[in-house]
Design goal:
Elements (H helix, E strand, L loop, with lengths): L1 H14 L11 E3 L2 E3 L8 E9 L2 E9 L24 E9 L5 E9 L8 E3 L10 E11 L2 E11 L10 E6 L2 E8 L14 H43 L10 H23 L10
Parallel strand pairs: 9-11
Antiparallel strand pairs: 1-2, 3-4, 4-5, 5-6, 7-8, 8-9, 10-11
Length: about 280
């Protein structure tokens, strides 16, 4: 039974497909690749509003490529951004001669460990999108679902160090605009991908994709054949040891069959094949 369990695990591992985490370096938008990794840093955006006799400060912490790093232990637990937050909103009240008081802290984007952003863009013919949206849901506050919507704009005249602009926070939706070179589509050579480049990539990869699919189907089929055969021999035939291998006699003869086949091909290629009777 240990052999059976091990084979089942191997088959599942070969036939299963692992879910890949969000890759900022190879972000896919409308079939084009974008490298957002230069933006993979925590950014803080702040705004203050005078509310006599106090000042209300709103701070947004965000990272478009990964969840935020947890707050240090020096920050009170009640004032920390929730775990797994990608975008966090903190509202602090300042009053003269008094310590700042955090009045609100919650996740605008990101709640669970498997949460990932969605990248959306309108189709623009055969050209790569010059604008696209980074969207992600967050916490539910007073029965209103919070979320973040970052509008990325391709701007080669800007710098990736430039910060996004706050458009507004309304009905639980934080809207930002971020014009940076990283928001421009990339080709394999690091230049803007053109429609011809994209079609060429598809042609170059078509052959590899076919053989890759064929190889995957072969591995999955062989794994299922082995697992089903072993289960049948173990549960029905009550076999054990090497006898668990399905069609054991055939597999024992298989090397010799391959050798005979190779010899036959060699004889045909070298012209050694003879018709009729041979001299004894």
């Amino acid at each position: 039974m240990r052999v059976l369990s091990a084979l089942a695990v191997v088959a599942l591992a070969l036939s299963g497909r692992a879910l890949a985490a969000f890759d900022c370096k190879k972000a896919q938008v409308a079939g084009y690749t974008y490298d957002l990794s230069p933006l993979a840093n925590e950014i803080t955006l702040e705004s203050n509003v005078t509310t006599p006799p106090t000042i209300t400060g709103t701070k947004y912490r965000l990272n478009p490529c990964a969840p935020l790093v947890a707050d240090p232990d020096s920050v009170p637990a009640i004032d920390r951004c929730p775990a797994n937050s990608w975008v966090c909103r903190l509202v602090t009240n300042f009053k003269k001669d008094e310590k700042p008081r955090v009045t609100e802290v919650n996740a605008v984007a990101g709640v669970g460990t498997k949460d990932e952003p969605r990248l959306e863009a309108r189709a623009s013919g055969n050209e790569s999108p010059r604008e696209f949206h980074w969207k992600m849901s967050g916490a539910e506050v007073e029965k209103v679902g919070w979320s973040a919507d970052i509008k990325f704009i391709c701007d080669k005249g800007a710098k990736n160090e430039d910060q996004p602009k706050i458009v507004g926070f309304s009905e639980g939706v934080l809207s930002l605009e971020w014009a940076v070179p990283a928001a421009c589509a990339l080709g394999d050579d690091g230049k803007d991908k053109t429609p011809d480049d994209k079609n060429g990539d598809q042609d170059d990869n078509s052959g590899g994709g076919f053989f890759s699919t064929l190889f995957t189907l072969f591995i999955v089929g062989a794994s299922l054949y082995l697992v089903v055969g072993v289960m049948y021999k173990s549960l029905v035939v009550r076999a054990s040891g090497l006898d668990l291998i399905p069609n054991l006699a055939f597999w024992r003869e298989f090397p010799y069959l391959c050798a005979d086949f190779a010899q036959h091909i060699w004889d045909m290629a070298s012209g050694r094949r003879r018709d009729g009777y041979s001299v004894v």
